[in-house]
Write a structure and sequence with these properties.
The chain has one domain. It is built from nine helices and no strands. The longest helix is centred in the middle third of the chain and has 28 residues. Helix 1 packs antiparallel against helix 2. It is mainly alpha-helical. The chain starts with 5 loop residues before the first helix and ends with a helix.
């Protein structure tokens, strides 16, 4: 198996990200009408849910096709390998420690552990009867799509030899953080730290299925905190 080159990997990854978002916006426009200046997608739970529900499968489908173009099985290229039980257990404990430390830092700095974006997303989805689908796209669809891109496709294209491990982990974590533009700088730093943890788990286990599970676990914790605070 010969992976895509580093530049090609970045370019194709960017194409899949943009293609997914564009498809989501087109479907949203067809469903709700043309986007106007007063359309606030970022704070509309139903809109965000629809965008993710459409963009995630488009993104994954494109990455599968690009992976196959290398002559490899898509599952092998994207590291869709089921992890061992011990790896899952270790990952859960690592995520638990990360969440506790992250929340503790937020509290010590006088910040809420739940962002305004999360509250507004949850509130608007609840008002429109879309909470079940919001939970699904946040806990299932988003981890699958993002991990397939960052810890799957990009990781495979950039990790060529052992010395590439930490630059690849850090590089994918940085891009992972930068796409979370809905948050402020403090939260983006937290997302970067989560990306480092997920990248290390991907490297140590060789499995993006593991990082999908851990990413989903982090998102479940965030949704539970939001539900408790909103309730």
């Amino acid at each position: 198996m010969t992976p895509w080159g580093r530049i090609a990997t970045f370019g194709l990854g960017l194409i899949t990200l943009l293609a997914g978002q564009l498809t989501g916006l087109v479907v949203f426009s067809l469903w709700h009408g043309p986007l106007g200046r007063n359309t606030d997608l970022a704070n509309d739970g139903a809109a965000v849910t629809l965008l993710i529900a459409v963009s995630a499968p488009v993104q994954v489908a494109l990455l599968v096709q690009f992976a196959r173009r290398t002559g490899a099985r898509a599952g092998d290229y994207l590291a869709w390998v089921w992890p061992r039980g011990g790896q899952i257990l270790f990952g859960i404990m690592a995520v638990a420690v990360f969440v506790v430390v992250s929340n503790l830092v937020s509290v010590l700095l006088g910040r809420s552990i739940v962002t305004d974006f999360q509250i507004e997303l949850y509130r608007s989805a609840s008002a429109q009867g879309g909470l079940p689908l919001l939970w699904f796209v946040v806990v299932v669809a988003t981890p699958i799509a993002e991990e397939t891109l960052f810890r799957g496709f990009l990781f495979r294209g950039w990790l060529r030899e052992p010395r590439d491990a930490w630059p690849t982990i850090a590089g994918t974590a940085l891009l992972f953080a930068l796409v979370h533009v809905q948050y402020d700088g403090f939260v983006i730093v937290q997302v970067f730290a989560a990306g480092l943890l997920l990248g290390w788990m991907r490297w140590a286990s060789g499995s993006t299925v593991l990082t999908m599970l851990l990413h989903g676990l982090i998102n479940i914790e965030g949704m539970l905190e939001t539900a408790l605070l909103y309730g």
